Amino acid sequence: MQEIKVQQKHFLVYGGSGHVGHALVCALLQEGHKVTATYCNNKITMAHQNLEVIFFDMSSSLPIVIPGPLDGIAFCIGLDKKAQAIKKIEESMAQNVGESAHLFSRLAVGGIQAGLPSLRQSSNPNIVFIGSLVGSKAFISPLEFAASQGAMNGLIEVLSKDLGRDKIKINSIAPGVLEGGASENLSKQLKYDYLKHCSLRRYGKAIEVANMAVWFLEENSYITGKTIVLDGGL
Amino acid sequence: MYKKLLLKDKKVVVTGGSKGLGRAVVLACAKEGAQVAFTYAHDDAAATKTEQLVGSVGFKYKISATSLVENIKMAQELKERWGGIDILINNAGRSEFLPMALMEESDWRTTLDLNLTGAFITVKAFLPLMVAQKKGHVMNVGSLAGVRILAAPIDYSASKAGLKGFSEALAKEVGRYNIQVNCFAPGILDGGVAMGIPENKIRDYIDQLSIKRIATFDEAARALAFFVSDKNSYMSGATLIFDGGL
To answer: How many domains in chain A?
Structure first.
């Protein structure tokens, strides 16, 4: 036997046009699932019979409501390029730090609230955030981003207690430096240091993060409130 | 809709595979397409039952996880039979519910010897096969008792905490050979070492869980089968807590 029979599921992916988001959408479609994916700055151009594409701006759009059963929500939202610049604390704006954490938390809470009625109709509902290593380990990064990721980890722990009554599992995947995507903005020195300390001596790939997210969305029946670090052993 | 097998043609060694979580792991790996060799120390009937359940893709070795000589012999036999191994799952362990006051030095040493030193010995025996092929995954089965404050036996908790540190340091050492090392830390499962826990304590534990139930061996084993698969290729030195949200 080469394959196992599985049931088609429906997932909502916020940020489906980003580096990891796109990989996740492709991986879910490849598994045969239905995907509703949102984009903001980069339009999703691919077409697939199981893919629905929706414009969504995290700072102004209302959360997406999916009629009927929804098996999982993935949040793959990143910061815009301006907010990815690494600054010293003297150069950082305290207001920006708070705003980023606020944006992420608002999207998470609003997105989950909007999705709850549909998630409750699933036999094994899961929510996955694609976060970052900087929310879990000390790593040079923009203060805004680090603050937002740390806040998300706390939010996920608390939400897991609340959502558990509906059998909804919520977890975060925290990748280290990846090939491509936002990691392209890191300095050569920082990337060199990362490789020096990474046990597997290489950067991660978007598909490796996507594969983990697919398992959590499709299969996970018991892990909740956790941040899964994918950093090659930093 | 069909899904590809996670462990197709992988060669897997599971220690303590005759019953409980170990048996479930043997069966889950086989179901995902792996060939599985499992070890056990005492219970011949349980091991035979596991071997019957797993069918032609699995077979047993009666050896102790604490014997380096026996484990090296098994590694050599598997090298001849399979050409190498891809995945080592260190699951063999023991627990006895003794408070500190009643625990003898011999009890402490027996638990540490099997739960922690056993993992070291098995890795010592099988790691050279993975280094030679420059690929592999070592998964040490720890416990929630090794990462959280729980009312668990001190020898058991200490041994499982040791496995977490062992996994982290080993990940650093062998990552250069493309070998991943991780630790799987389940909370209370429906059987095995949990059988000695008083019912009122189990109820208190479930009350604290987000999921409000104890996991089955089968769902822990299915999760473990994913975490040792090639789909999980960038995780190393991590401890995966499988506790239903304590």
So the answer is: 1
Q: Is residue A2 part of a domain?
A: no
Res. B82 pLDDT band, cuts 50 70 90: very high
Q: In this structure, is residue A220 part of a structural domain?
A: yes
Q: What's the Cα-to-Cα distance from B33 to each of B8, B10, B194, B226, rounded to whole Å?
A: 4, 7, 29, 12
Contact A224 B223 (CB under 8 A): no
pLDDT-derived band at A85, boundaries 50, 70, 90: low
Candidates B1, B181, B232; nearest CB to A32: B1
Instruction: For residue A223, list chain B residues with Cβ-Cβ distance below 8 A.
Output: 223, 240-244
Length of chain B, in residues: 246
The pLDDT of residue A60 = 82
Residue A1, in any domain of the structure:
no
Q: Model confidence over B14-42: pLDDT tens digits? A: 999 999 999 999 999 999 999 999 999 99
Size of interface A-B (CB pairs under 8 A): 123
B177 counts as catalytic = no
Q: How many CB atoms are located within 10 Å of the residue A83 CB?
A: 17
Domain span at residue A137 reads 10-230
CATH number, position A116: 3.40.50.720
Q: What percent of chain B has pLDDT over 90?
A: 91
Within 13 Å, how many C-alpha atoms sit on residue A232's CB side?
21
Q: How many Cβ atoms sit within 10 Å of the Cβ of residue A185? A: 12
- State how beta strands A3-5 and B2-4 pair: antiparallel
The residue among B92, B223, B246, B221 whose CA lies nearest residue B159 is B92
Residue B106 has pLDDT above 90, yes or no: yes
Quote the mean pLDDT of chain A: 90
How far lies B37's CA from each of A49, B12, B56, B77, B130, in Å? 43, 6, 11, 11, 16
pLDDT (tens digit per residue) in A149-183: 888 899 999 999 999 999 999 999 999 999 998 88
Q: Which CATH superfamily is domain B11-242 in?
A: NAD(P)-binding Rossmann-like Domain (3.40.50.720)
Q: Determine the Cα–Cα distance for residues A182 and A148; give it in Å rounded to an integer.
A: 15
